[in-house]
From TrEMBL, chain A:
Domain Leucine-binding protein, first and last residues per copy: 24-353
Signal peptide, first to last residue: 1-21
GO biological process, one term: amino acid transport
Gene3D superfamilies reported for this sequence: 3.40.50.2300
CDD domains xref list: PBP1_Nba-like
Record carries keyword Signal: yes
Family: Belongs to the leucine-binding protein family.
Record keywords, A-Z: Amino-acid transport, Signal, Transport
Provenance organism: Sedimentitalea nanhaiensis
Protein name per the record: Amino acid/amide ABC transporter substrate-binding protein, HAAT family
UniProtKB/TrEMBL annotation, chain B:
InterPro entries, per the entry: ABC_transp_permease (IPR001851), LivM-like (IPR043428)
Annotated membrane topology: Multi-pass membrane protein
Protein's name according to its UniProt entry: Amino acid/amide ABC transporter membrane protein 2, HAAT family
Organism whose genome encodes this protein: Sedimentitalea nanhaiensis
GO cellular component, one term: plasma membrane
UniProt-listed Pfam families: BPD_transp_2
Localization (cell): Cell membrane
Automatic annotation (TrEMBL), chain C:
The protein's name: Amino acid/amide ABC transporter membrane protein 1, HAAT family
Alphabetized CDD domains for the sequence: TM_PBP1_LivH_like
Transmembrane portions of the chain: 16-37, 44-60, 66-85, 97-122, 142-163, 184-213, 225-252, 273-296
Organism for this UniProt entry: Sedimentitalea nanhaiensis
Single biological process term from Gene Ontology: amino acid transport
Signal peptide interval: none
């Protein structure tokens, strides 16, 4: 029952299964069909690019589509752990899927490297020695936005997010750092497409700025309608709504907007320059935030494979904790709860020729961990 | 009839033999896959009771599936965290015992079905389809924005609930539980469909006036059928939650309602075993097509379309002939 | 809460309702004439938006994009009607639901296969950008006003077509007695294809118009589809007037609920729980509305018989 396996390289260990010391088998569960597929495709492409560049032929990657359904993701994780006998799992995009898969997976002894989702329970009381987050804790980018709002001198901001856990986390994260007043706080419906009512509230609230977290199509709709409404208060948001994949769909409506991110394609370090160039050469498009996270996740794993044998769990874990790889974000380290300690930047949406993209205009937070480290008993 | 009997036997046989084989070659995932098919089959049997026997096209059975799941999730969550579900007016504690959870899931789903049914059955046709959908959507949005049990993130239950004398974490033992429940549900539905109630229900579906003329009240028949239907689907929801050790609002989504309906139609509407065949076929399709291409939904859609257009009566209609008309 | 804000929100509700009407009109027409539940109506909406985005991207003309959305969606409608839908008229609703559910899968993944996984860009033209000042000092988006206008024109056009033209007479006759009008020599199969294509074109137009201020992406049709169903069920299936009234009711309920329920609960609850209860209740409000309507009028407001 081989359903879909992409052999990244012909596995030398193919003749014997099971107790083989060489190489590593990776299971990637990510979203490749339906509306959210763009993110999964980017993570996969970034990850596979790094695997190919490593030149190692002992890394086997099995990729499956979770269809963005938690129950499917759980089934796939069971399959990969029990039947495919993978050593490392990765790939999940959405927090709710991560919450469904990760606790069970790490309890069965595999490593989980998160290339995107970072729900707070997994950073705090639910942290686990085999769980590593290579992207960010969910609150981080919003905290950075809150910090930026202070430096930008905003003192009466209107904040909005969808009414679901990641939305509540986002607003809480923002408020954790933000020191000014709130002129309003609104939760929208998940999947909402029309924001006329919220924009009217913003207009009436007397705010001096707006912070929003509306991932995917919701953000595109909001930005287009906001630009059309005549309300011209400055907006800030996390990078998700200003990422390479969707920026072209927002167009000029996003120009000049400040957003916070741990990565940007113009970050000037050797690893990133090489990554951006090779990604473009390989796939013919600019890399996105998600692609960079997939790429970093793979490189972290490769660095651990080079340092230790995956069957020696303690050594492999120590090698992961060392995070001895050239991250596209520059400095990267793990905090005690296995979540990143990294810098968060402020980017501005600009136009380069026909392409909308971001450039870094400042740093919001330096060597920032997350608010849940102390709750993690590890 | 004869062909249908053999098909039923073969289906049950394969459903039992396949996991046993998987167990012997140590492929626990395949056992889980078979368990999933069985749980889906039970959900489909539930819908089929309303849809096939009563002619009630409900596009809101996710409401019961989800409720069953949340019964399991909420009870197990409170047992896991040692907090009472309710402290007032009477103290209710959580539980990790499967039979208790099942009973509560069945009872609450039946109750919800009576409530939804009593309101929805005032309408018919497309209005009925849409009002059932509306109820499920309400529950969907409610669970998403209800933070206590995880909202959209859902809720993980780390250890499967217990069943006296069995180790439920062992895939084959959990499979056995689900298989036994499938048999019980099938037997119940088979008996019910041949009981005076079942016959009156079928007659009422075909001609309401005649059934009124013999002194039956169609509304009561439909409501009873809807309640039984909801209860069975709710039970399936509780099992599904235990299978994944996870619940989320997705269980309430309209796609879930659509999928349950697909099991019924793929297998054959109004046949006792239809949903079993449908669920098995669906799982099979999902796992073979998923390997073909990133765009496998296209093939799935084409196959479903083919079934509707050219294989009326689903799998059973194709193989066993059109002995049971569903219209 | 000021009166001005209330008026502005009511206008937003009206405008949202008109957007829903564009989508619901085709749906209710197809159901009224052919008795067909078409879940794939949302896919036609998506096709319209994608066609408009592609053409606008290539030519830069918004009007051409609108034309493209009408043509492509109508063409897709004709194809689907000819190969699939036509076989479903005599089937029960169940088969129709499943077949059109299958069409959603095919259309969604097919679109993703052609256009990729990323959202497309579609913007309103410059001559419709910006805002206008309305009485009472309400600053309102010109494009949204324009959508209200187009929606009302479409409604008027449909009323005129159904009520005053020969084809409208046939459509009404087809709703009442399809055997009879076939016997009278009307090519019923052609009529059905026409009605389906018209419904599809309306969905496509809605997709293009709305796509300009929303996100053009795979799966954009489904949420709107469910709303459109709520609309036509409230209005009474088959009734254009019902669709218009239903759409505006839904638009107003949703918009006003969203904007005022949280502050209403804030009057007697602490802010954070008022916020979340208000938000939850407002996301359920239109379904509550629909259930309420159906309890008193099981066939919708204008469901007639």
């Amino acid at each position: 029952m081989k359903l879909r396996s992409i052999l990244a390289a012909a596995s030398l260990a193919a003749m014997a299964t099971g107790a083989q010391a060489e190489g590593v088998k990776v299971g990637m569960i990510t979203t490749l069909s339906g509306g959210g597929a763009g993110l999964g495709v980017d993570v996969r492409d970034g990850f596979m690019l790094a695997v190919a560049q490593s030149g190692r032929d002992d890394i086997e990657v099995v990729i499956e589509d979770d269809q963005r359904k938690p129950d499917v993701a759980v089934q796939l994780a069971d399959k990969m752990i029990q039947s495919e006998k993978v050593d490392v799992l990765t790939g999940i995009i959405w927090s709710n899927l991560a919450m469904a898969v990760v606790p069970g997976a790490v309890a069965q002894g595999v490593f989980y490297l998160s290339p995107n989702a970072g729900p707070s329970p997994l950073a705090g009381a639910g942290c686990h020695e085999n769980y590593f987050n290579v992207a960010w804790q969910n609150d981080n980018l919003h905290e950075a936005a809150g910090a930026y709002a202070n430096t930008a001198g905003y003192s009466n901001i209107f904040i909005l997010a969808p009414n679901y856990p990641a939305g509540t986390d986002a607003l809480n994260g923002f408020k954790r750092m933000y020191e000014g007043e709130l002129s309003g706080e609104t939760y929208t419906k998940l999947g909402q497409t029309d924001y006329a009512a919220e924009i009217a509230q913003i207009r009436a609230s007397g705010a001096d700025s707006v912070f929003f977290f509306l991932p995917g199509g919701m953000g595109i709709s909001f930005l287009k309608q906001y630009a059309d409404s005549g309300v011209d208060l400055p907006i800030i948001g996390p990078a998700f709504s200003f990422d390479q994949g969707i920026l072209q769909a927002v167009g000029a409506a996003a120009l000049g907007v400040k957003n916070t991110s741990q990565w940007s394609k113009d970050l000037d370090n050797e690893a990133n320059v090489a990554f951006v160039e090779s990604f473009q050469a390989e796939y013919g498009r600019l890399p996105s935030l998600y692609a960079s996270q997939g790429f970093d996740t793979a490189n972290l794993m490769i660095s651990a494979v080079e340092a230790a044998d995956v069957n020696d769990k303690d050594a492999f874990r120590a090698a992961l904790e060392a995070a001895d790889f050239a991250s596209t974000r520059g400095d990267f380290a793990f905090s005690t709860n296995h979540h990143p300690v990294q810098d968060y930047y402020v980017r501005e949406v600009i136009q380069e020729g026909d392409v909308f993209t971001n450039k870094i205009v400042g740093t919001a937070l330096t060597d920032h961990a997350d608010a849940y480290v102390s709750e993690c008993a590890m | 009839m004869r062909k249908e009997f053999f098909l039923n036997a073969a289906l049950l046989g394969v459903l039992l033999a396949f996991p046993l084989w998987a167990w012997s070659v140590d492929e626990p995932y395949l056992i889980t896959l078979a368990t999933r098919a069985i749980v889906f089959a039970i959900a489909g049997i539930g819908l089929n009771f309303a849809l096939g026997f009563g002619g009630l096209v409900s596009l809101g059975h996710a409401a019961f599936f989800g409720l069953g799941g949340y019964v399991m999730g909420v009870l197990a969550f409170h047992a896991q965290t040692y907090t009472p579900v309710m402290g007032w007016p009477l103290v209710i504690n959580g539980t990790k015992s499967m039979p208790t959870i099942w009973l509560i899931a069945i009872a609450l789903s039946a109750l919800l079905a009576v409530g939804i049914g009593a309101l929805s059955l005032r309408t018919s046709g497309v209005y009925f389809i849409m009002i059932t959908l509306a109820f499920a959507q309400m529950l969907y949005y409610f669970t998403i924005s209800w933070p206590t049990y995880g909202g959209e993130d859902g809720l993980s239950i780390y250890v499967r609930n217990g069943f006296p004398g069995l180790n439920t974490m062992d895939p084959i033992q959990f499979f056995a539980i689900c298989y036994a429940i499938l048999l019980i549900v099938l037997a119940f539905v088979f008996a019910a469909s041949r009981s005076p109630f079942g016959l009156a229900l079928g007659a009422s579906r075909q001609n309401e006036e005649r059934i009124q003329a013999v002194g039956q009240v169609p509304f009561r028949l439909y409501l009873t059928a809807f309640a039984i239907s909801g209860a069975i689907t709710g039970l399936a929801g509780a099992l599904f939650a235990d299978l994944n050790r996870f619940i989320s609002p997705t269980m309430f989504s309209w796609q879930t309602s659509g999928e349950i309906m697909i099991f019924v139609i793929l297998g054959g509407v109004g046949r006792v075993f239809g949903p079993v065949a449908g669920a098995v076929l669906f799982i099979l399709l999902e796992h073979t097509l998923g390997g073909l291409s990133e765009f496998w939904h296209i093939y799935l859609g084409a196959i479903l379309l083919g079934v509707v257009l050219f294989a009326r009566g689903g799998l059973y209609g194709m193989v066993a002939g059109r002995e049971v008309a569903h219209d | 809460m000021s009166l001005i804000l209330f008026i502005e929100q009511a206008l937003n509700g009206l405008q949202y309702g008109v957007m829903l009407f564009l989508m619901a009109a085709g749906l209710t027409l197809v159901f009224g004439v052919m008795g067909l539940i078409n879940l794939a109506h949302g896919s036609l909406y998506m096709i319209g938006a994608f066609a408009a985005a592609a053409v606008a991207g290539a030519t830069g003309s918004f009007l051409l994009a609108l034309v493209a959305s009408l043509v492509c969606a109508a063409f897709a409608g004709v194809l689907v009607e000819f190969f699939v839908i036509r076989r479903l008229y005599d089937r029960d609703h169940l088969d129709q639901v499943l077949a059109t559910f299958a069409l959603i899968l095919i259309f969604s993944e097919g679109t993703r296969w052609i256009f990729g996984s990323f959202p497309l860009f579609l913007d309103k033209p410059d001559w419709l950008s910006g805002t206008v000042m309305l009485p009472f000092g309400i600053e309102y988006s010109l494009y949204r006003l324009w959508i209200i206008l187009v929606g009302l024109l479409v409604a008027a056009g449909l009323f005129w077509m159904i009520g005053r033209t020969r084809i409208g007479i046939r459509i009404r006759a087809g709703e009442n007695d399809r055997e009879m009008i076939a016997a009278l020599g009307v090519n019923i199969s052609l009529l059905y294809t026409f009605v389906f294509a018209l419904g599809a074109a309306l969905a496509g137009l809605a997709g293009a118009l709305i796509g300009a201020i929303q996100s053009v992406q795979v799966g954009m049709g489904e949420p709107v589809l469910i709303l459109a169903f709520v609309v036509i069920v409230i209005g009474g299936i088959g009734s254009i007037k019902g669709a218009l009234v239903g759409a505006i009711l839904v638009g107003l309920t949703d918009t006003l609920g969203r904007s005022f329920l949280p502050s209403f609960f804030g009057l007697f609850l602490e802010p954070s729980s008022a916020m979340s209860i208000g938000a939850s209740l407002s996301s359920m409000s239109i379904y509550l509305l629909m259930i309420g309507v159906l309890l008193f009028r099981p066939k919708g407001l204008f469901g007639g018989i």
